[in-house]
Write a structure and sequence with these properties.
alpha/beta, Rossmann fold, Conserved Hypothetical Protein Ylqf, Chain: A, domain 2, 6-stranded mixed β-sheet, 11 helices, GTP-bd_ribosome_bgen, cytoplasm, GTP-binding, GTP-bd_ortho_bundle_sf
Length: about 280
């Protein structure tokens, strides 16, 4: 399942990030709490070096709380603050302004000493496709200025969005890197929908997800799909799930595409419970 997907608009986005850094005070990087490492763009550390940064672990309700706490400890540094949010419900977003004020205290103190009272903080929002960037911006702005969609890369053009708390957000399209050197990273991104399903073999993808879940979360599969037990063979588990959910065609043959879509949709929607596919 080698993946090499780097559309031209993503190359353009990387250039735009570099060009616009000089206009912002800080960077907010959004990641998926279920795949914290895989949903980080390895270019961001290099591109945004020297800028204060907040890493938001989004969709935190879909990941194990204990594992997420380990990630926060692992990623936090003097110039990088890490916190959890749920952009759909707004949970955790009230921590954004205090974290920015902490990161930018020295700069803000200098401005206040010059008599500037109403300080507007400009922040660039970055993240790979489908981590919830537009939902985050819409929540912060309390409207729907940024186009939201469930397809990776739906946000295209650069946008400045004002908020009521003295923060202006610069939106950028979701950007991936040119090549996935690690197959596991590519799979994790595909599991969570960061890579378009259209370029993947969806049946194989669902089979690989079952392999991961039967190793780490077998009880979730048993509970969700009312299985009597878990086999060591992912294909057997997939077929058992298909039978339980009626994903069969004539003569009792398995409809593999239908059961694959079902499993991936239920994982992505959190119906299998809180799952962390990566640990520090």
């Amino acid at each position: 399942m080698a993946i090499n997907w780097f559309p031209g608009h993503m190359a353009k986005t990387r250039r735009e990030i570099k060009e616009n850094l000089k206009f912002v005070d800080a960077v907010i990087e959004i990641r998926d709490s279920r795949i914290v490492k895989s949903s980080s763009n390895p270019d961001i550390d290099e591109i945004c070096a020297g800028k204060p940064r907040i890493i938001l672990l989004n969709k935190s309700d879909l990941a194990e709380e204990g594992v997420t706490k380990q990630w926060i400890k692992n990623l936090s540094r003097d110039s990088v603050k890490v916190t959890t949010v749920n952009s759909l419900t707004g949970k955790g977003l009230n921590s954004i302004k205090p974290l920015l004020e902490e990161l930018l205290k020295e700069k803000h103190d200098k401005l206040k000493n010059k008599g500037i009272a109403n300080i507007v903080t400009r922040v660039m929002v970055v993240g790979i496709p489908n981590v919830g960037k537009s939902s985050f911006i819409n929540r912060m702005a309390k409207n729907s200025r940024a186009k939201v969609g469930d397809k990776p890369g739906v946000t295209r053009s650069k946008q400045w969005i004002k908020t009521s708390i003295g923060i202006e957000l610069l939106d950028t399209p979701g950007v991936l890197w040119p090549k996935f050197e690690d197959d596991i990273v590519g799979l994790n991104l595909a599991f969570t929908g960061a890579i378009k399903d259209e370029i993947m073999d969806i049946e194989t993808l669902a089979l690989r997800l079952i392999e991961r879940l039967q190793e780490r979360y077998p009880e979730r599969l048993i509970e969700r799909y009312k299985l009597s037990s878990i086999s060591s063979e992912a294909l057997e588990n997939m077929e058992n799930i298909a039978r339980k959910r009626g994903a069969v065609v004539s003569k009792g043959n398995i409809d593999y595409n239908r059961v694959a879509v079902l499993i991936l949709d239920e994982f992505r929607g959190g119906k299998l419970g809180a799952i962390s596919l990566e640990r520090p």
